[in-house]
């Protein structure tokens, strides 16, 4: 699964640690999400969508 | 808030400090091991257990260094709990081999059981404190280790039943299990970019 996390984060001038804190996960988890090493659970995907104010399907796309 | 498109890279000074720390740790571990077992004729089972204890405690010390130099508030307490789990595991492996030099067998066994309970509690707390990716890594580690160990155990058990190989003690099997689990944890963590 592909995602736009890195771009959305940069647009808001947030570090990985900033985003991690808002999502309640570790910085390593944010890094793994951005590099495609880990696909989030549905609850975490909803939380990410809420934090960025975008629908899930505009952040996550199929390969 | 800081912009950070790239992954944070440690500074040269931090890299140097980490290298120095690891070099000192390696020297201490090597010296300590030679003092402990230098003149003792050890069985291979004890050597495996000792190696796993050294690896576990070294990993715990490295984790402690990382927690101290790069503290993370989310998920809360995970780093410290990981250090505690690894240090206790190392102690549990060392006690049966060296504990009887300073205490009776019963006291040593009691101490092992106490460490086991504490380590299980710390493991449970770590699971509850971990975020979903760390939990996934723990699950994958368990699954990989179980798959590998049950496969090897069946092959060994069949060979032993046929009289093709010698019997391995429970202590030896435990050391092998720890080794397999450690390798599985490295593989699971590497897949998620945690190593």
Q: β content of chain A, as a range?
A: 5-15%
| Average pLDDT score of chain A | 94
Note poorly predicted spans of chain A. Answer: none
Terminal CA distance of chain B reads 27 Å
Radius of gyration of chain B: 19 Å
What fraction of residues of chain B sit in β-strands? under 5%
Determine the number of helices of chain A (DSSP H or I, runs of at least 4 residues).
5
Largest sheet entry of chain B = none
- Give start-end ranges of low-pLDDT stretches of chain B: 1-7
Question: What is the CATH architecture annotation of chain A?
Answer: Orthogonal Bundle
Q: What assembly state would you assign to the polypeptide chains in this entry? A: heterodimer
SSE series of chain A:
EHHHHHE
CATH topology of chain A: 434 Repressor (Amino-terminal Domain)
Main sheet specs of chain A: 2 strands, antiparallel
Instruction: Estimate the mean pLDDT confidence of chain B.
Output: 87
CATH superfamily (homologous) name of chain A: lambda repressor-like DNA-binding domains
Question: Would you count the extended β strands of chain B for me?
Answer: 0
Distance between the termini of chain A: 5 Å
Helix content of chain B: over 70%
Briefly say what this structure is.
Chain A has helices at about 5-10, 15-25, 25-35, 40-50, 55-60, and strands at about 1-5, 60. Chain A is mainly alpha-helical and about 60 residues long. Chain A starts with a strand and ends with a strand.
Word description of this protein:
The complex is a heterodimer of chains A (63) and B (195). Chain A is mostly helical. Chain A is 60% helix and 6% strand. Chain A contains five helices and two strands. The longest helix of chain A has 11 residues, at 42-52. With 195 residues, chain B is mainly α. Chain B has two domains: 12-31 and 42-130; 132-195, no CATH class. Chain B has helices at residues 12-37, 44-69, 78-98, 105-129, 132-161, 170-191. Mean pLDDT of chain B is 87; it is low at 1-7. Classes of the chains: A mainly alpha (63), B mainly alpha (195). Chain A binds chain B through residues 6, 9-10, 12-18, 20-21, 24-29, 31-32, 35, 37-38, 40-41, 44, and chain B through 1-5, 7-8, 72-75, 78, 131-134, 136, 191-194.
